[in-house]
């Protein structure tokens, strides 16, 4: 049974249950009301409506799973930083589960804070930027399946997901710089402006190696579908033949999710908080959470593209394998984050254009050679 | 691209303290800079005129939160010069040992702030952790952790506490181990080198002309250290090298401070070995004669000078304080122009700002 069948079954059962009551009620009413009730009941039981509701429930399940993972990620972010940097990390709220509830407590606190819009800000842009940023980032999660049976699907066939899902995920990934630039511009603040401009430059130069590294994977797998990509790694995970691409992909992901060493748009030493300077309260909380969402999405993409997705020994479920790998990727990110300084913007652009881009092209050539030679 | 002024301060993560650095940027490149100081002016020189001589010692501590002991030491040196008081030799050794501990603690705090500025979180927490070792030693010696109030006119307040020699030797061994680790952590980091080598070059002539002193000048290749060039206390008895570097960039300033911490470890060991038995304090006269007293010491940040004028009463007629960092920050525009905005934190962090003594 996959997620579609599961949700479809639940919806079917619910609709049947309600319709029994509904038709029974209709029997008591005069004929014209009775006909209306019957028509509504028939509509509710129609295949189109069931499909619509199923997809709705599916997406809710996927979002909830993803957001719980995001809470875990934030907890790992804080706890691991404590372990690396020689302090305890959160431990008071949720004492018995290692301070896991700290993020919820922070969320509650942020909700109680006043939401301030600067007087001279461009109100529309200021309001729209968090919406675009959060929305585009959560959209990535929609197309990433946790296993062949656990993803957003409109048919009961396992593996029948969005056919260009990987492409969609990468496209949604790169909407964020626009939101950041918008936030930086509309806040009417010099720090945010510089942060937004840096973000635009950074994302533009790191998007290309990222996509080239992903292109090598698509070339080898011959598909944009996540399930096909993972199936193609059945014999050998792609990070072995495409090791250069794997490294380039990880470095570009770090730049995309904006963590040290590449957190220049919000470089706190020189730009206060960069492009989020003027955002307070839960808007800031949303940005904070969305960074973790993007980290989760990045880890999931790296897992699906290079680390064999949900493949692993049978004694652990597929979904858990996928999450374990994504968590490992994120842990490596965190390890790197806390142990290196921040680079400068010009150094970063030089690194992106002069080092990563040729490496990504070389990796693409290797992938093409492997594919045309028929070795993979 | 249009040029614009950016205020880095008074409330800004880059400023360790309350001051403002206005930079004019063209894109990301700095074309002009002007520091604005004075937010933390407390009128310490004037306050001192209304206090008796021993009462000023804790005020002198408040001049710098990073290295308060050197300032009260300097004050005591000045007043001893004014009153012609001969300090017992044991007290001199205790003072030298204590201010070298303070120098290491101050440099470690600088290193922590510097690493934090550059985004190296692990550098911040590790150095602050190891600073605790020295702060604990100073606490055992003086009784407090930040403003020590330890030197007295004519000696020091207390003798060494029990087992202090043993603890100090252990702490110095620990510090030497840690310094090695820091050198691996910082010099071994490619990104750290990228951010530091060739950034914020202060040429030798500029440094001398602008009056820059301390590690920032020694990093430009000038061998000028008051501990050697105009020895005070028992520094002539000590065997140590003056750390200098030729390049004058941020990396050189970092390197000079690291080397100074090694030398300070050596000085602490020697001070413990050579420390004689005897009195650690003599009673100083209450009133100072009419005349002047001058004290010059090598602060962790540069050359600190105090000049006191006595008029026969128990209060100074005038006390002038020369802060090393006040001069260094005036040299900032010379160093900053031409570099990128992100280099501001590296350059200004590398100068080791301390606003308490700067604004007095």
Task: Report what the structure shows.
- The complex is a heterodimer of chains A (376) and B (360).
- Chain A has 14 helices and no strands.
- In chain A, helix 8 (190-221) packs antiparallel against helix 10.
- The model of chain A has no long low-confidence stretch (mean pLDDT 85).
- Chain A is mostly helical and 376 residues long.
- Chain A folds into two domains: 4-45; 120-373, no CATH class.
- Chain A has helices at 3-28, 31-45, 47-84, 102-111, 123-143, 165-173, 176-186, 190-221, 226-232, 243-257, 268-271, 281-306, 318-339, 345-373.
- Chain A is globular.
- Chain B has a single domain (3-359), classed as Orthogonal Bundle (Cytochrome-c3 Hydrogenase, chain B), CATH 1.10.645.10.
- Chain B has a three-stranded antiparallel sheet. Chain B has a three-stranded antiparallel sheet with strand order 6-7-8. In chain B, strands 4-5 form a two-stranded antiparallel sheet.
- The longest helix of chain B is centred in the first third of the chain and has 30 residues, at 89-118.
- Chain B is globular, with a radius of gyration of 20 Å.
- Classes of the chains: A mainly alpha (376), B alpha+beta (360).
What's the structural blueprint in terms of helices and strands?
The complex is a heterodimer of chains A (about 375) and B (about 350).
Chain A: H1 3-28, H2 31-45, H3 47-84, H4 102-111, H5 123-143, H6 165-173, H7 176-186, H8 190-221, H9 226-232, H10 243-257, H11 268-271, H12 281-306, H13 318-339, H14 345-373
Helix pairs in contact in A: 1-2, 1-3, 3-12, 3-13, 4-12, 5-6, 5-7, 5-12, 7-8, 8-9, 8-10, 8-14, 10-12, 10-14, 12-13
Chain B: E1 3-8, E2 20-26, E3 29-36, H1 44-49, H2 56-61, H3 68-83, H4 89-118, H5 121-142, E4 151-152, E5 155-156, H6 164-187, H7 190-196, H8 204-210, H9 215-218, H10 226-229, H11 250-274, E6 291-299, E7 302-310, E8 316-322, H12 324-330, H13 332-336, H14 343-350, H15 355-359
Antiparallel strand pairs in B: 1-2, 2-3, 4-5, 6-7, 7-8
Helix pairs in contact in B: 3-4, 4-5, 4-11, 4-14, 5-6, 6-11
């Amino acid at each position: 049974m996959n997620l579609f069948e599961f949700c479809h079954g639940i919806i079917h059962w619910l609709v049947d249950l309600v319709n029994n009551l509904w038709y029974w009620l209709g029997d008591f009413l005069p004929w014209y009301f009775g006909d209306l009730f019957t028509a509504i009941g028939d509509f509710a039981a129609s295949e189109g409506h069931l499909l619509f509701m199923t997809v709705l429930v599916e997406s809710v399940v996927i979002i909830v799973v993803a957001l719980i993972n995001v809470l875990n990620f934030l907890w790992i972010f804080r706890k691991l930083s404590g372990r690396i940097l020689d302090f305890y990390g959160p431990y008071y709220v949720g004492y018995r589960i290692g301070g896991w509830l700290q993020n919820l407590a922070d969320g509650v606190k942020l909700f109680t804070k006043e939401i301030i819009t600067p007087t001279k800000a461009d109100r529309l842009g200021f309001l729209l930027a968090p919406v675009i940023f959060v929305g585009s980032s959560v959209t990535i999660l929609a197309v990433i399946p946790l296993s062949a049976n656990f993803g957003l699907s409109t048919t009961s066939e396992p593996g029948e997901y969005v056919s260009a899902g990987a492409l969609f995920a990468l496209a949604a990934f790169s909407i964020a710089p626009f939101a950041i630039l918008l936030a930086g511009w509309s806040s009417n603040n010099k720090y945010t402006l510089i942060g937004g401009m840096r973000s635009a430059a950074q994302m533009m130069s790191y998007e290309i190696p990222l996509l080239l590294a992903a292109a090598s994977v698509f070339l080898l797998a011959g598909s944009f579908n996540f399930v096909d990509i993972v199936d193609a790694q059945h014999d050998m995970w792609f990070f072995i033949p495409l090791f250069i691409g794997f490294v380039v992909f990880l470095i570009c992901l770090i730049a995309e999710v904006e963590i040290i060493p590449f957190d220049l748009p919000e470089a706190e030493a020189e730009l206060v908080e960069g492009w989020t300077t003027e955002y307070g309260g839960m808007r800031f909380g949303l940005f904070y959470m969305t960074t973790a969402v993007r980290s989760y999405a990045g880890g999931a993409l790296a897992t699906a593209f290079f680390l064999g997705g949900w493949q692993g020994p049978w004694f652990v479920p597929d979904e858990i394998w996928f999450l374990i790998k994504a968590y490992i990727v994120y842990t490596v990110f965190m390890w790197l984050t806390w142990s290196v300084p921040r680079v400068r913007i010009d150094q970063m652009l030089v690194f992106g254009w002069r080092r990563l881009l040729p490496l990504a092209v070389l990796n693409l050539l290797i992938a093409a050679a492997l594919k045309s030679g028929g070795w993979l | 691209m249009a040029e614009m002024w950016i205020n880095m301060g008074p409330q800004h993560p880059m400023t360790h303290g309350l001051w403002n650095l206005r930079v004019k940027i063209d894109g990301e490149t700095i074309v002009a800079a002007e520091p604005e100081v004075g937010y933390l002016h407390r009128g310490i020189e004037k306050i001192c005129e209304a206090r008796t001589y021993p009462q000023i010692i804790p005020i002198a501590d408040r001049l710098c939160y990073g290295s308060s002991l050197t300032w009260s030491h300097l004050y005591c040196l000045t007043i001893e010069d004014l009153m012609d008081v001969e300090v017992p030799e044991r007290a001199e050794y205790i003072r030298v040992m204590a201010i070298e501990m303070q120098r290491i603690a101050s440099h470690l705090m600088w290193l922590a702030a510097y690493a934090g500025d550059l985004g190296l979180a692990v550098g911040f927490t590790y150095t602050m952790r190891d600073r605790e070792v020295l702060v604990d030693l100073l606490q055992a010696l003086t009784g407090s952790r930040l403003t020590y109030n330890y030197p007295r006119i004519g000696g020091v307040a207390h003798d060494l506490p029990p087992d202090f020699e043993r603890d100090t030797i252990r702490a110095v061994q620990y510090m030497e181990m840690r310094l090695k680790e820091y050198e691996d952590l910082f010099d071994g980091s490619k990104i750290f080198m990228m951010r530091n080598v060739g950034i914020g070059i202060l040429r030798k002539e500029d440094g001398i002309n602008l009056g820059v002193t301390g590690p920032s000048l020694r990093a430009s290749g000038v061998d000028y250290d008051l501990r050697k060039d105009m020895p005070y206390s028992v520094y002539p008895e000590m065997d140590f090298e003056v750390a200098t570097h030729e390049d004058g960039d941020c990396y050189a300033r970092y390197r000079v401070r690291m080397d100074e911490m090694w030398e300070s470890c050596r000085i602490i060991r020697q001070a413990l070995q050579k420390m004689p038995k005897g009195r650690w304090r003599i009673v100083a006269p209450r009133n100072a004669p009419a005349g002047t007293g001058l004290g010059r010491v090598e602060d962790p940040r540069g050359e600190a000078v105090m000049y006191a004028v006595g008029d026969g009463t128990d209060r100074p007629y005038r006390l002038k304080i020369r802060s090393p960092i006040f001069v260094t920050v005036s040299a900032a525009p010379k160093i900053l122009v031409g570099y990128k905005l992100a280099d501001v934190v590296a350059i200004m962090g590398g100068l080791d700002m301390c606003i308490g003594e700067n604004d007095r």
